[in-house]
Every structure is written in structure tokens, then in C-alpha cells.
């Protein structure tokens, strides 16, 4: 056991977060995201029993967001015409606001298929049990 480390962060995930360098990306994926397909060149960490918000909140206690890009946090845009509500996005923005002085301005959106392409280049993908639709979030690591 370690002091000050959120218990939800496994030793495997802590190792990955530590290994990541500046500009590396981490995807926290909802339960519908094709993590294994997108993560063929990434480390895929299974956290099926957890939701994206609790994982994001724990990670951002340790993980610096990139200050050299406008949006170090990106969400997958809803497809035009898809009648999906995304209340989880407001939760993400509140969590980011606590971790980064830019607040919600640090959060951007990426078109769905462009998000998939960027996810293919991620250092790691966390596969969660999140049931909210369009709850995928990508973080870009900064420096300490």
C-alpha cells in the first residue's frame, strides 16, 4: 500500500502512467469502445468494474495535462443526427476543472472517426465498464 495514491489505480496502471512521456496519449474508454482493436499497438488495461468519471478523477490527481496544446483533453464527438445526450461530459469538465487551471477550456472534441485514428496511436487504453454513450475521453500528458 502507498499513501496518497487513489486505491482505484492498480500497480499496472501506475506503472503505465509513470512510463508515459510528454505528449503521450491515454484513452479512458467506455464499455462500447473497441479497446482491443484500437489498442493493437497500445497497452490495454481492463477496468471493467469501474466508470470513467472515477477513473478520470483518480488519474488526474497524478497525471499532468499538456500545457503546450489547446485541448489536452478530448471527447469523441456525437455523430450528426445521433439523438444521444452526453451528461457525462459535464462531469468530465468538472473533474478537469479541479485538476487544471484552464478548467473546461482544456476540453475539446474530436470527430468520431478521427478520435479512433488518434486512439490507435495512444500509449495506453483503459477499457472500463462505463455504460454512458460517447463517454470516451483522451488525455495528453504534460510535464511536471
UniProtKB/TrEMBL annotation:
It comes from the Bacteria. Its EC number is 5.1.3.-. GO terms for molecular function: D-ribose pyranase activity; fucose binding; L-fucose mutarotase activity. GO terms for biological process: fucose metabolic process. InterPro entries: RbsD-like_sf (IPR023750), RbsD/FucU_mutarotase (IPR050443), RbsD_FucU (IPR007721). It is an enzyme of class 5 (isomerase). The keyword Lipid metabolism does not apply. It catalyses: beta-D-ribopyranose = beta-D-ribofuranose; alpha-L-fucose = beta-L-fucose. Gene3D superfamilies: RbsD-like domain (3.40.1650.10). Keywords: Isomerase. This is L-fucose mutarotase. The gene is fucU.
